[in-house]
Amino acid sequence: MSDPTFSAVPEHVAIIMDGNGRWANARGLPRTMGHRKGVEAVRETVRAAGDIGVKYLTLFAFSSENWRRPETEVSDLLGLLKAFIRRDLAELHRQNVRIRVIGDRSNLRGDILPLLIEAEETTRDNTALTLVIAFNYGSRDEIARAVVSLAKDVEAGRLRPQDISPELLDARLDTAGIPDPDLIIRTSGEERLSNFLLWQAAYSEFMFMPEYWPDFSRDLFFAALEKYAARDRRFGGLSGKQAAAVGS
């Protein structure tokens, strides 16, 4: 069966992949099984996004707050990330997918950072879907790091305080050069951003879905895109119908 067509496909979709642990608990399984099943949902979603014409897909893989989880769960999450990159990097490269990683890299473990850099460098020149992996990422931390960068330039005399603008701050964020997300999806029924893309989400559409992430599928992804296409994005202005009424 062919993929559906939409009147508007978002250029950038960001996803908070929530509910792996609850999916496992509901089935009497260890939480690690939920994370492993969640990796399968990642693969299916990446393929669906590329097939339908999404240009950027950002996945909240590991937050800066996730280090507070039990050590065994953290180790399993990191192991899954490493396995995903080692197993899937060649296939993603063949599919012309570019990988970009956002988040604080300053204190990452030595066995993680080289893999992230390898994934970025290997796929740097690819031109299809850009897969943005948010790892050790927290939006408040990202904004604070950007502000420190600007403050250093002011202190060094390279920048005047009055010249600081939203555009200049935007260029210092981890997402510099990436368009803001048109659509942010969160699974598991929770309805909050949880420190994810706070700056970039200023005019994003939100979709909160009850399904746990391991149950997320190609069909659910396309259902979200269908709802997105029906929305009227005004960016603080008038809708098309309202503008026409004013002009008539």
TrEMBL record:
SUPFAM superfamilies (UniProt xref): Undecaprenyl diphosphate synthase (SSF64005)
Binding residues annotated for substrate, in chain numbering: 19-23, 31, 35, 63-65, 67, 69, 186, 192-194
EC assignment: 2.5.1.-
Cofactor note: Binds 2 magnesium ions per subunit.
PROSITE patterns referenced in this protein's UniProt entry, alphabetically: UPP_SYNTHASE
Cofactor(s) named in the record: Mg(2+)
Pfam family, one: Prenyltransf
Domain of life: Bacteria
Keywords: Magnesium, Metal-binding, Transferase
Binding-site residues for Mg(2+), renumbered to this chain: D18, E205
Active-site annotation: D18, N66 (proton acceptor)
Any one GO CC term of the record: cytosol
Enzyme class: transferase
Any GO BP: polyprenol biosynthetic process
Gene Ontology molecular-function annotations: ditrans,polycis-undecaprenyl-diphosphate synthase [(2E,6E)-farnesyl-diphosphate specific] activity; magnesium ion binding
Annotated family: Belongs to the UPP synthase family.
Subunit-structure text: Homodimer.
Job description of the protein: Catalyzes the condensation of isopentenyl diphosphate (IPP) with allylic pyrophosphates generating different type of terpenoids.
Protein name: Isoprenyl transferase
